[in-house]
Structures are given as C-alpha cells and as structure tokens.
Design a protein that fits this description.
It contains three helices and three strands; from the N terminus they run αααβββ. The chain has 147 residues and is mainly α. The protein is elongated. The mean pLDDT is 81. Keywords: Membrane, Transmembrane, Transmembrane helix.
Length: 147
Amino acid sequence: MSVFVPLGIAGAVIAMICTLVIVFALARGAAGLAGGATGLWIVGALLSMAASFASLWTPLFVSLGALGAALVVGALLRLLSVSVFKSAERAPREEKRQERTLEKTPEPQVLSPRIQTPRVLTPLAQSSRATTAVVRSTVTDGIRIVA
C-alpha cells in the first residue's frame, strides 16, 4: 500500500462528515451552512481521489455517492418539514375561519366608480410665441398631453 490510500480514506471520511452537515443544513433551509459544507466536501472528495493513484477507487465513489444521497435526502426532509409545519399552522386557522363564517356576515356594498373630467390649463400670461393648451388629467398628473 502506498501513502495515497490512507489519504484517500481520510478524504472519504471528511466528505462523509460534510454530507451529514449538508443533509441537516438543507433540511433546515440554511443555505450558507449547506454551501460551506459543500465547499469542505470538495476538499474531502479531492483527497479521496488520491487513493485512485493506487488503483483504489472506492473512497472516491463513496464520497460522490454520499453527496448525491445528501442532496436528495436533504431536499426530501425539507419538503416534509415544511409541509408538516404548514399543516399544523393551517388547522387552527380553518377552525377560526369556520367560526367567523357562522357569525353574522355583512351584506356586500356596491361601490360606484368616480369619474372626473380632465381639466384644461391655459397659460396665465401671453408669450411672444405661439403656445398650445396643456391638458392634464387627474388620473395622469405627471403626463402632459399637448393638443
């Protein structure tokens, strides 16, 4: 055995520890922690590649498979935890909503829209050159329309 095999095995162990951190970080939704653990996983995977120089590929395959499994399991745990928490929060709200509907509900009011006519602004002083009237709508105060 050469010196590369223990380095590869140590790299695979580091990569496995990082994948456990990745699983928990993804399940909690901590993107920064997941990114940091993934960066450290890369170091472990590169170290596990050292064993391939001695024709021992198992540490590399273990570290690669661990990352794939961590990403899938972490995403599934996040999906399950979010759906469980949402259903736990939703149940009391629905009961309160049913209690409110059993109480007296007011009749809806019909509101009629207010329509305002546009104003025509004329210049206060006559200038030496020809000017046109500026029409300003109350809806579009910032837009000037030259007639």
